[in-house]
Amino acid sequence: MSDLTDIRQDIEETNVQYEYINKLKELVREKSNKLNRELTYNVTTFGCQMNARDSEKLVGILEEVGYVPADDEKADFVIYNTCTVRENANNKVYGRLGYLHSLKKKNPEMIIALCGCMMQEEVVINKLKESYKFVNLIFGTHNIFKFPELLYNTFQSEDMIIDIWEDTKRIVEKLPVSRKYSFKSGVNIMFGCNNFCSYCIVPYVRGRERSRLPEEIIDEIKSLVDDGVKEVMLLGQNVNSYGKGLDEDINFAKLLKKVDEIEGLERIRFMTSHPKDLSDELIEVMASSKNVCKHLHLPLQSGSSDILTKMNRHYTKDDYLRLVDKIRDKIPDIALTTDIIVGFPGETEEDFLETMDVVRQVEFDSAFTFIYSKRTGTPAAAMDNQVPEDIVKDRFDRLLEEVQSISRKKANAYTGSVQSVLVENVNAQDNTLVSGRMSNNSIVHFPGNKSLIGSIVNVRLTECKGFYYIGELDG
Ligand code: 5AD
Ligand code: SF4
């Protein structure tokens, strides 16, 4: 089913889903009474920050209707929120479904559900219908807001329920959300992507770009702040094209400025920025703000202008380098991180050396490096000259070594300084330590206890351990 009616910020739909939530509360209570125990859930998230935020929405609804969390997948309701950006993400899900099947044989009450990007692929649905008949519920990225209704229908049905939409213009918010952290939260500002980078499946599985209204975003952040949130991460596949298609005169820089003015909010991050759309106005807003974090994730993908053209990225190597200079000129202490793909079809050794050259010139604080993964249906999948595996592996290893040695060198530069740190958790390995993040997103561990979680404190960085710091409270 496809729904392209242009209903933004659809309040009526929110009310419909609340009715299902009420009906579900009844069903969960009945079942719980029958079994003489509480019903448990387990949500596993694959992929990006968008999926992490979606999972918080799923958990919010499950808890609202009366489920309680289980530590692992031995639960009454198990859902995988999937990613499909690279093929190995899909393989992981198939592998784990086998395990879920064995659990379901022991617990006939168990409901298995799948959602997220991978479910938007027809080949995946066909395979699930054919070989994974024990799955109860499958839905996609566009109708996640219908989760209460779909769960209700699953309770009533013996058959596999599949509901996938091709696209949507609807934005349905204001349903229950259970935040993983009390002090920080993702906030969706837009959905979908119109860029069609030739290797990327996201535009096909997340649909066309649509922006939330600025007042909806601001209201959501204000209520998060009232609820104790200190840091927000504004989320979109390409935040720099925020506002296109809205009636108001708004763009990402203007939105960021409005968010920066929210009383009580202490830190603002955002993800992800496409270099082609990063405006001077945005650099100005970042430079003049005290709450926008000193960190920018700016995916390079390749340093070769030829490959960038084939990737449909709309910038050259020089454009990227010039942009970095401009940003560092205005915000000298900014941390720059990036994504890089090696082994894109037709990538030659010279192309790869261009990427290495950009890595050396820019000196990224850190970089996520990926081996190109062929995604069926994308233009790159049909390109000639797919690069042999052994060559890709060799380039990947050389790139990783370079990236890591630069990261270590850059990190070391902060040793001895005092930084403000948002404390996130007690260290899992050593409970005398707590861990937090600096404005530039670096992690620091230092002596402390759980009472510090959620506060912003000054920490002296005493030692750099490569990718993280050891520190001590200062003053
Ligand atoms: N193969 C490898 N990496 C990919 N990415 C997106 N599509 C692919 C693909 N087909 C990477 C890009 C993007 C990040 C989220 O995932 O680097 O920025
Ligand atoms: Fe994929 Fe490019 Fe859109 Fe990012 S900007 S989601 S890489 S198509």
What's the helix and strand layout?
Layout: H1 11-35, E1 40-45, H2 49-65, E2 68-69, E3 77-82, H3 87-106, E4 111-116, H4 122-131, E5 137-139, H5 147-156, E6 161-163, E7 184-188, E8 190-191, H6 202-206, E9 210-211, H7 214-226, E10 231-235, H8 252-260, E11 267-271, H9 280-288, E12 295-297, H10 305-310, H11 317-330, E13 335-342, H12 349-362, E14 366-371, H13 389-412, E15 418-426, E16 433-438, E17 443-447, E18 456-464, E19 468-473
Parallel strand pairs: 1-2, 1-3, 3-4, 4-5, 5-6, 7-10, 10-11, 12-13, 13-14, 17-19
Antiparallel strand pairs: 8-9, 15-16, 15-18, 16-17, 18-19
Helix pairs in contact: 1-5, 8-9, 12-13
The structure holds 5'-deoxyadenosine and iron/sulfur cluster (SF4).
Which keywords apply here?
single chain; 475 residues; alpha/beta; six-stranded parallel sheet; 13 helices; disordered N terminus; binds 5'-deoxyadenosine; binds iron/sulfur cluster
How would you describe this protein?
The model is unreliable at 1-7 (pLDDT under 50). It is built from 13 helices and 19 strands. Helix 1 runs parallel beside helix 5 and helix 8 (252-260) packs parallel to helix 9. The chain has helices at 11-35, 49-65, 87-106, 122-131, 147-156, 202-206, 214-226, 252-260, 280-288, 305-310, 317-330, 349-362, 389-412, and strands at 40-45, 68-69, 77-82, 111-116, 137-139, 161-163, 184-188, 190-191, 210-211, 231-235, 267-271, 295-297, 335-342, 366-371, 418-426, 433-438, 443-447, 456-464, 468-473. The strands form five sheets. It has a six-stranded parallel beta sheet with strand order 2-1-3-4-5-6, sandwiched between helices. The protein has a five-stranded mixed β-barrel with strand order 15-16-17-19-18. It starts with 10 loop residues before the first helix and ends with a strand. By secondary structure, the chain is of the alpha/beta class. It binds 5'-deoxyadenosine (5AD) and iron/sulfur cluster (SF4). Residues 193, 195-197, 200, 202-203, 237-238, 274 line the site of iron/sulfur cluster (SF4). 5'-deoxyadenosine binds at residues 85-86, 199-200, 299, 301, 339, 341, 370, 372-373, 375.
